């Protein structure tokens, strides 16, 4: 049973685990195939399985669902985990192109879409270190 407060969280508004997984998989499929994302694709291992799982676990908690990432790995420490990679505006924008496209392909209310785009932009922009 879903707690009333949870029902208003983006995780549940999107449709829960299956939809978050689908967004993550589509994001990585796009990153793997879109030439505009070549620079950020190069920052990832050849096999994206672990990357897919980690982003899924992170987004689950970030969106207000189960805190899967924290349960397995502890606090995400996003900025620290991304410091080894040269992330500039171009890399940020490439990441956002793929994520926004994955969201474009996911049915949702416009207000939720606007909220997610703004929150994802702030998070991606915070990862910049160049």
TrEMBL record:
Q: Which Pfam families match?
A: Bac_globin
Signal sequence residues: none
Its required cofactor(s), as named, are:
heme
- The residue ranges crossing the membrane are none
Q: Which PROSITE patterns match?
A: GLOBIN_FAM_2
What is the superkingdom listed in this entry's lineage? Bacteria
- Gene3D superfamilies (UniProt xref): Globins (1.10.490.10)
The entry's keywords: Heme, Iron, Metal-binding, Transport
Family note: Belongs to the truncated hemoglobin family. Group II subfamily.
| Protein name per Swiss-Prot or TrEMBL | Group II truncated hemoglobin
Q: Which organism is it from?
A: Parachitinimonas caeni
